[in-house]
Amino acid sequence: MSYDPPPPSYPYRPPDSSPSYDTYPWVPQQETEPAVRRPQRHVALGHHSDLRVLRSAYRWQRRVATLTALGYFVLFLILSAFAPSFMTSTVTDGLPTGLLLALVQVPVTWLAIVLYEQTARRRVDPIADRIRKQAELDARREGTR
Fold first, then answer.
1. Which residues does residue 95 pair with via DSSP β-bridges, in sequence order?
2. pTM of the model
3. Element spanning 73, H or E
4. Which pLDDT score, from 0 to 100, does residue 78 have?
5. CB-based contact 124:58 (threshold 8 Å)
6. Nearest CA to 57 among 110, 109, 131?
């Protein structure tokens, strides 16, 4: 049988230890006083209403473009499935209506892109610019403190 000496009853303290080694865990630590902060004179960036308005404008923009492109395509699919006689009828000599409607899909996609750009310029970009300028002002104000 070997004899192992009992472990020391005190915790190991490394050289140049911090004061946290000098206390036991059940002894309450002294709380340091938090630094006093000055109250803000202005409302900081992150106006929730501005961000909500930006999100709703962007959502409107996506809906307009998506419904334009997908709406026409779904209409084309429904006509192909439920009105085959209409789709096979000829518009001019040898050009069926279905082919004409399929070729019109390309300009409708371009129209969706134009609508997306237009609603971005008219609704989304001004709100985003206003939020960006407010962020720059807030950053300058924080930099001068």
1. 92
2. 0.54
3. helix 48-82
4. 95
5. yes
6. 131
